[in-house]
Design brief:
Blueprint lengths: L15 E9 L5 E19 L4 E7 L3 E7 L2 E18 L4 E13 L8 E11 L2
Antiparallel strand pairs: 1-2, 2-5, 3-4, 5-6, 6-7
């Protein structure tokens, strides 16, 4: 549709399947580290691509039940990331770390390579 502006709004869902590797620079309880990862990222925009489908059925306990669903715009692609952070071993069982991470995703129809970044803080259990 040339010449028409269509406004759409959605809140994306973003499942990720990836493998990360971390390198700690020091062996003590406080150490800086780098991390890198590869994986697959899927983004569901939750923006409708067609009309909703509605279905109703009879439930003997609750009466008529109707639900609806709607197809939405999704994209998937290869993803890679790098991160830089600081890790602290609290004791023999607990670890805390914080990192800054940048991720790039290779979508087929994208102009360029979309990227996003963020800070992350973790509290973990060592075993």
């Amino acid at each position: 549709m040339t010449g028409r502006n269509i406004q759409a709004q959605g809140r994306p869902d973003h499942p990720v399947a990836d493998v990360r590797r971390t390198y700690n620079f020091l062996t003590g309880p406080l150490t800086p580290f780098v991390s890198a990862g590869l994986g697959w990222t899927s983004v569901d925009t939750n923006i409708a691509t067609g009309p909703p489908d509605v279905g109703c059925w009879w439930n003997p306990w609750y009466g008529y039940i109707c639900t609806s669903s709607q197809d939405t715009k999704t994209e998937s692609g290869f993803a890679y990331e790098v991160g830089l952070g600081l890790r602290y071993d609290i004791n023999d069982f607990l670890v805390a770390d914080g990192l800054y991470r940048m991720k790039w995703v290779s979508f087929d129809n994208a102009e360029g390579t979309p990227s996003y970044d963020g800070f992350q803080m973790n509290l973990g259990w060592k075993f």
